[in-house]
Write a structure and sequence with these properties.
It contains 6 helices and 14 strands. The protein is of the alpha/beta class. A 6-stranded mixed β-sheet has the order 1-2-3-4-5-6, covered by helices on one side. The protein has a 6-stranded mixed β-sheet with strand order 7-8-9-10-13-14. β5, α4 and β6 form a beta-alpha-beta unit.
């Protein structure tokens, strides 16, 4: 199996991490959280040598992570995927706080995942882990074979996601981190929605919130 490659583009006012995920030699790429600029993301996709986006994955529905979704979908023809409990937030312009970053909007994903659902996209096998707390339908995408977790705004390097917005819950967030992320091997690399990457082991030892 070819090595998994992860590239990051930081986008927008909130410095949101968009991830480009692909295998060496593949002809498709996966996009996770396209930030606020679908056009910029699509240009990056082409610069990396890809013509086809296998899917646009969303860790949650807040506007700083989803502002570029519709533009990227239009340019690439790719489907949009999110966790099933996030459908309501995606469609609600007030609760998804999209208006904070420009024009408010709502939309529906093309397909919704369930908890522990596994799928393969562009040669990358991923498992959906429901991690409520930042939002009700927040999730992480776990590439177990590659030791990588795309964790959205659930946990950051030395911190955790905010819980004061619609459907947020501090208790649920800490439970999600302890039960879904801290149970993974220490060497699993964490790619969060903001800030630098980390590992499960580092956060287990150094994160003051858990």
């Amino acid at each position: 199996m070819a090595d998994l490659k992860v590239k990051r583009r930081v986008l927008g006012l909130c410095q949101t991490n968009c991830y480009y995920v692909y295998r060496e030699g593949a002809d498709e790429i996966v996009i996770i959280d396209p930030g606020d600029s679908g056009a910029q993301v699509y240009e990056d996709v082409k610069s990396l040598g890809f013509e086809k986006v296998a899917g646009i994955l969303l860790t949650h529905g807040h506007g700083d992570h989803t502002g570029g979704v519709q533009e990227l979908k239009s340019l690439s023809g790719a489907k949009v995927f999110a966790y099933e409990d996030e459908a309501g937030l995606l469609k609600d312009p007030e609760n998804n706080v999209s208006g904070w970053f420009g024009k408010a909007y709502g939309f529906e994903a093309d397909e919704y995942f369930s908890d522990r659902q596994t799928f393969t996209m562009a040669g990358v096998e991923l498992e959906t882990l429901h991690t409520p707390g930042h939002t009700k339908g927040g999730c992480c995408f776990y590439a177990k074979a590659d030791g990588i977790l795309f964790c959205g705004d659930t946990i950051f390097n030395g911190s955790v996601g905010r819980t004061d917005l619609y459907s947020g819950s501090a208790g649920a967030l800490i439970d999600s981190i302890r039960e879904r992320i801290m149970t993974l091997p220490d060497e699993v690399k964490l790619y969060p929605g903001h800030g630098d990457a980390s590992t499960v082991g580092y956060e287990r030892t150094h994160n003051p919130f858990i």
